[in-house]
Design goal:
heterodimer; A: about 160 residues; alpha+beta; Ubiquitin-like (UB roll); DNA polymerase, domain 1; 2 domains; five-stranded mixed sheet; 5 helices; B: about 775 residues; Aldehyde Oxidoreductase, domain 3; Aldehyde Oxidoreductase, domain 4; seven-stranded mixed sheet; 21 helices; 28 strands; binds FE2/S2 (inorganic) cluster
Chain lengths: ~160, ~775
């Protein structure tokens, strides 16, 4: 039996009637047409589907859309503001943190969460914090560089303010 | 004055990235077509069974299900899955798109359901009822070659697909007669699953009026598909458009023509509606090609001073149940570089390809060269230890001198250029080799298991001259100077993460003297890139980039003729620099590209016989492969109590010739090394004795994560290749080829004080711990 679900996605209110079994990742991709969130496994391992739900990094293949009812979801498409890349996006671009780009939206969202929680203080901390995200292309080094770059940009921002 | 430092050689960030970091790239699963139907495939849970009965009634009755089809209903319309490898006397099973009356491996496609929604298509699969009658299963290839064992394909009468023998160089028997010692060793190169993070997927759309079919596929080889699919689906090549949109990693897994690509094409025509199929991770693990899986027995003839006189190898290659595109060719590639960087006068190679009830093996990152490099580099360490010679001295002693290139090997190749001594010296410096050995001595004295490993490798890239390739090894390109002075570059290679939208733009911008922002690189759509041989075998830049250079040379020559006309002189008096044509001494006038292109297309004042337009296309046929090389050094700490291996230091010196974009080279090397860290320390595709796949998800197949990766020290030397005008060699697989033996050698070096001289891959904590425990128990 389809049931209603209401949530905010990238600051836009959304309202759909969907089957309760629909995963959040499929809801975002197929009902909201936000295909930047990717599916790599559907078993909660690869992290390609990572989005922010109420500010927390969540693997969107591990929750049903109806479980996210009432929450505030940010996907990769909602990360840049006023046409400006988020520092993490910029870091990935500057430091060649992606090759095929398939893991990238999930990596970026997980990294945004790391930065926001102050858990990106060192290379080791970043590597540890990204253990839930698989990348088969880059070998991770440039991803860690990218997050460090973003952390430095954020620090510089704070210093300026 | 614009910046005139060349773009080539600059670590430029990629032009493909903005769309990918914003999440607005289009991968296959992101396609939205009106009336799109979704296919889901039912796969065999048995490794070998007879299909007694399939009942699809219940599945068909589900609302939203458009059709359910079994092998007998589609196989006649779909042709056989092709194998392009030319192996004499290959015994090959008929590889139908869906299983006919038997299944031959876990994951073998049995039926397909098509529905209006992917969830409903999955429901339909669950509602199909199949009766299987299980049959004896073949899982061990060494057993499988023996008489009287069960058969993977009973109708072939044998499990042996082919035998392949090559002898090269001087007489092998003489070599062994002259030997002071014969060293024997056995090495197993375990089965691996490539696991690109994007699984495969395909969307087909048929235009009944035009009779044209468009197939979007997550593939590395849109052009090979366009060549090979017509034979399967009955749509002619010139009515077939293949698009490789954003492709989420390949590593060889998408260098194939798969049953599903024909199946969705067939279904789109049959149902007259676009059809999408997206592989699940479980399907990807079971039904997308695997790599490696070669067991080798080696005999080496050596003199007392360590001089190697000859190598004999006998390899058993587990092919799995079917030949995919290149399945039987991969083990023969291993034979081609068996002698590595070394002068080894005599070789004899015997390869037996064996069918088992598993997924096919095929070209996974490196394809044959990692196997060869792992074994020759392990063997060099074994020889050094057995003969009591220094492992670096042993390697140096067998390197050809830089002046000896082109160097003919006893495996029948001619290495284009090289300076193996240079790469080794540089790696030693970067690693602080002597210091590392001191650290090792100190660690050992303190009872710690610390090891240092080295590997020097050479590999085969820029695949390749057509004579050596199954279906043409040239590459095509097209360059158009547009009327506006903007440049469109079209390449027949099909990058999927390698970054050629950037690196080819660097090449074109330099050669044409235009700002890089004015260059667009197109690829991956056979209606745009009319011909091509795609991306694999580290060929993109060396072969595809050269085709672009040839196009540019033609355009510049043509443009000079037009410039001469406009400058009222002759072409040999026209100079071309920084995007401007001039004729110093004749006139002060300078003609920039935009003006010249305008003249070429508006065509009011052209020299006699001058064709309007400024466009050129070219096929580049390489005269040889290229042979990049390098030295990798690795230091590890092994935890005595847990068997855990920690990589403490990793130094890679790679020589891929001149680097177009060092940032991209670094990315390729780092990514390649990560695959090897996986192979040496964690990864193995495991089937149990019933042919059940135990590594069918990310949960069970342990790939490296961010915290498993050391900080790298990367260096390079530059030895240009004489094979192409850019001098480039290729770097997509180097990391994976050079690093597996470096890491393995380091672990075994760490374990040497315990007398452990061999461990199979992967050297998981459990395996290492077991070995330590057994040895320490034995010596207490
Ligand atoms: S798709 Fe969600 S974790 Fe892999
Ligand atoms: S960039 Fe390809 S998987 Fe990470």
């Amino acid at each position: 039996m389809p049931i209603p679900v209401r949530l905010r996605v990238n600051n836009t209110p959304r309202e759909h009637t969907i089957e309760p079994r629909v995963l959040l990742v499929h809801y975002l991709r197929d009902h909201c047409n936000l295909t930047g969130t990717h599916v790599g496994c559907e078993t909660g391992i690869c992290g390609a589907c990572t989005v922010l739900v109420d500010g927390k990094a969540v693997k969107s293949c591990t929750v049903f859309a109806v479980q996210a009812d009432g929450s505030d979801v940010t996907t990769i498409e909602g990360l840049a503001t006023n046409g400006h890349l988020h520092p993490v996006q910029q870091g990935f671009w500057d430091r060649h943190g992606l090759q095929c780009g398939y893991c990238t939206p999930g990596m970026i969202m997980a990294s945004v969460h790391l930065l926001a929680t102050g858990a990106a203080g060192s290379r080791e901390a970043i590597a540890e914090g990204l253990r839930g995200n698989l990348c088969r292309c880059t070998g991770y080094s440039h991803i860690i560089d990218a997050v460090q770059n973003a952390q430095q940009a954020a620090n510089a921002e704070v210093a300026r303010a | 004055m614009p910046d005139q430092t060349p773009y080539i050689g600059r670590a430029m960030k990629r032009v493909e990235d903005p769309r990918l970091i914003k999440g607005i790239g289009t991968y296959v699963d992101d396609l939205r077509l009106p009336g799109l139907l979704h296919a889901c495939i039912l796969r065999s849970p048995y490794a070998h069974a007879r299909i007694q009965r399939i009942d699809t009634t219940a599945a068909k009755a589900i609302p939203g299900v458009v059709g359910v089809f079994t092998g007998p209903e589609v196989n006649d319309s779909c042709g056989l899955v092709p194998c392009a490898a030319a192996i004499p006397d290959l015994k090959a099973p008929k590889h139908t798109v869906l299983a006919s009356d038997r299944v031959y491996f876990v994951g073998h496609a049995v039926a397909v359901a098509v529905a209006s929604d992917p969830y409903i298509a999955r429901d339909a699969i669950d509602a199909i009822d199949v009766d299987y009658d299980p049959l004896p299963v073949v899982v061990n290839p060494e057993e499988a070659v023996k008489e009287g064992t069960p058969l993977t394909h009973p109708d072939l009468g044998t499990n042996v697909a082919f035998t392949h023998s090559v002898a090269g160089g001087s007489n092998i028997d003489d070599a062994f007669k002259r030997a002071d010692r014969v060293i024997k060793h056995r090495l197993y190169h375990q089965r691996l699953t490539p696991m690109p993070i994007e699984p495969r997927g395909a969307v087909a759309s048929y235009h009944a009026g035009e009779g044209t079919l468009t197939l979007w596929s997550s593939t590395q080889i849109p052009h090979l598909l366009r060549t090979l699919l017509p034979g399967m689906i009955g749509v002619a090549e010139n009515k077939l458009r293949i698009v490789a949109p954003e492709v989420g990693g390949g590593f060889g897994a998408k260098l194939n023509v798969y049953a599903e690509e024909a199946l969705v094409s067939h279904l789109a025509m049959r149902l007259n509606a676009p059809v999408k199929w997206i592989e699940s991770r479980r399907e990807n693990a079971a039904s997308t090609i695997h790599g490696r899986d070669q067991i080798g027995e080696y005999e080496i003839a050596v003199k007392n001073d360590g001089t190697i006189l000859g190598i004999k190898s006998r390899t058993i290659a587990d092919l799995g149940a079917y030949n995919q595109l290149l399945t039987p060719m991969v083990p023969t590639l291993t034979g081609l570089v068996l002698t590595g960087c070394y002068r080894i006068p005599a070789v004899k190679i015997d390869i037996v390809g064996v069918y088992t009830n598993k997924m096919s093996t095929d070209a996974y990152r490196g394809a044959g060269r990692p196997e060869a490099t792992y074994l020759i580099e392990r063997l060099m360490d074994v020889i050094a230890r057995e003969m009591g010679v220094d492992r670096l001295e042993l390697r140096l002693k067998h390197f050809p001198a830089p002046t000896e290139f082109p160097f003919a090997t006893s495996c029948g190749l001619t290495y284009d250029s090289g300076n193996y001594q240079g790469a080794l010296t540089k790696a030693k410096q970067l690693a602080g080799w002597d210091q590392l050995l001191k650290e090792r001595a100190a660690a050992r004295a303190a009872g710690r298991l610390f090891g240092v490993g080295v590997s020097t490798y050479v590999e085969i890239c820029a695949m390749g001259p057509s004579a050596a390739m199954p279906a043409g090894g040239w590459e095509w390109g097209c360059v158009r100077m547009e009327i506006s002075g903007k440049v469109t570059v079209i390449t027949g290679v099909s990058p999927h993460g390698q970054g050629q939208e950037t690196s080819f733009a660097q090449i074109a911008a330099d050669r044409l003297g235009v700002p890089i922002e004015d260059v667009v690189v197109l690829h991956g759509d056979t209606n745009v890139a009319h011909y091509g041989r795609d991306t694999y075998g580290s060929r993109g830049t060396a072969v595809g980039g050269t085709a672009i250079v040839m196009c540019i040379d033609k355009i510049v020559a043509k443009a000079k003729a037009l410039a001469a006309h406009l400058l009222e002189t002759t072409a040999d008096h026209v100079e071309f620099a920084n995007g401007t044509f001039s004729s110093p001494g004749v006139t002060n006038r300078e003609i920039p590209w935009a003006e010249l292109a305008g003249a070429a297309y508006i065509a009011k004042s052209l020299p006699a016989g001058f064709e309007p337009g400024l466009e050129a296309s070219s096929f580049f046929e390489p005269s040889n492969f290229t042979f990049p090389f390098g030295t990798h050094i690795c230091a590890v700490d092994v935890d005595r109590d847990t068997g855990h291996v920690a990589i403490k230091k990793y130094i890679a010196v790679d020589d891929c010739g001149p680097q177009i974009n060092p940032l991209l080279v670094e990315g390729q090397v780092q990514g390649g090394i990560a695959h090897s860290i996986g192979q040496v320390l964690f990864e193995q595709t495991v089937y149990d004795e019933n042919g059940q796949l135990l590594t069918g998800e990310f949960m069970d197949y342990a790939m490296p994560r961010a915290s498993d990766i050391p900080e790298y020290v990367l260096g390079h030397t530059v030895t240009p290749s004489p094979v192409n005008p850019l001098g480039v060699k290729g770097v997509g697989e180097a990391g994976t080829i050079g690093s597996t033996p470096a890491i393995a050698n380091a672990v075994l070096d760490a374990l040497e004080p315990l007398g452990i001289t061999h461990l199979d891959l992967p050297m998981t904590p459990e395996r290492v711990w077991q070995a330590i425990k057994t040895r320490t128990a034995a010596t207490v």
